[in-house]
Amino acid sequence: MRYILRKLGFYAVAGWLAITLNFLLPQLIPGNPVQLILARESQTAPVTPGEAAALTKLLGLGHGSLPTRYWQYLDNLLHLRLGLSVYEFPIPVTSVLRGTVLWTLILVGTSLVVSVLLGITLGALAGWKRGTWLDSLVPATTFLSSVPYFWLALLLLYLFTSVWPVFPLSGGYSSDDTIGLNAQFVGSAITHSILPALTIVISSVGGWLLGMRNMMVSTLAEDYVTAAEAKGLRPRRIMIGYAARNAVIPSVAGFAISLGFVISGSLVTEIVFSYPGIGFTLLNAVQNDDYPLMQGIFLLITLAVLVANLIVDIAYGVIDPRTRQATR
Predict the structure, then answer these.
(1) For the segment 242-283, what is each residue's pLDDT rounded down to a tens digit?
(2) Looking at residue 160, what DSSP letter applies?
(3) Distance between CA 228 and CA 239 in Å, rounded?
(4) Distance between CA atoms of 211 and 213, rounded to whole angstroms?
(5) Dihedral of the CA atoms 109, 114, 117, 119 (nearest 10)?
């Protein structure tokens, strides 16, 4: 319990610092979203007096001194009022986030789980049977991991949409489909997500494989593995129960960090495929000086990273009791 309370306290302070930075950073960026909207409106109709003040309030930008705006920001945050999006004005930021985060969670979350499971499994086998053909997977997957995301995405896009037109070119679903839990829309969403998911899996599986393979080789030299072999235990039990179980612990920490960044999505992949995820939305927010939306996305990403790390920190203490003992 003391271990958990200490972790909760640490992450509570980290969360407060992240929220404060999320408020301060946009204040330092040049540009004003209110003036941006007024400039657009002035091209079609005259701007009425008092409209700037009304827009400032609607966008949740606050007014007065810096401490006063900070207090207003915290009050709005507690009530989940993140203001209105400039890019998709007058839609609330919370509505924009709800509409995009699910796409990223499904695409990047599924791709991450697949690449982790595939990389750890192949890495454990390559380390257990080192010196065999399985070792050749290491340089091959490492080479694919070194290829920039956008090059791999463009290559897959060219091969599977132009040379062999198997998958759709871009988007998250067909424009002819009605959004909802119906078979046609779900099938269309799955078809549109295969190429982006394949890009993420191919470019990330090498890192998991290499890390697990090296840890497996190191663990196999430990005395407890030698003792298990001397006791005559079955090779499969030694590999899974003794070697892989201990070798996978560093990968759990890496998975926690990656899990938190699932929310941020794979920005380049989403841009190349015009996938309607949080990364593509962040790009549009930056291009349109949409400060409320940028703040909402940054806050969501930061809190997701902190929550994921808290969960895995606690799980890490359960998996490896030495972690709890070290903090006493």
Answers:
(1) 888 888 877 777 776 676 666 665 677 888 888 888 888 888
(2) I
(3) 10
(4) 6
(5) -110
